[in-house]
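Progress report, Aim 2. The chain analyzed during this reporting quarter is listed below.
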Amino acid sequence: MRHMKRDMRGGAVTMAAIRHRSARSQHPGACCHGCHREHDRRLAAKPGDVLNTINGLTVEVDNTDAGRLTLADAIEYAKLQGATRIVDLATLTGAVRMMVGDIASCAFGNNDDFTKLVVETGDSQAERMLNAPMWKDYDASNNTDMPT
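Predicted structure tokens for the chain:
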């Protein structure tokens, strides 16, 4: 934990982007919300634990990196609140660190134009983000072979 100084970066970038964009919005009726879901590592799940997600699914933990489960719940929560464009700003995962090191975050979104807007907003505030592609080719590898 002592070395995880960037642990709050995703949340900080989210708040800065929303603040900057809302202050300069050309669409007064537009609504932008941020959702930041913290993961308490002291309550980390263990392999074999079964967790209930916000949308009613149960998940058996096979990997102790439960941050992805926390992210899944945050995305479902945002969808329940009516969000239609969602961007995840990832900072600490091994894959992100391989892509951008310690100098940026990666933006993963479900709407290319909106994700580009978030990245441009970060750039305007000296907050580096890489717009990571969500190509259709990834769909199959994001599915599980576990029975429902």
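The two ends are 35 Å apart (CA to CA). The beta strands are 50-52, 58-60, 87-90, 105-109, 129-131. These observations will guide the mutagenesis work planned for the next reporting period.
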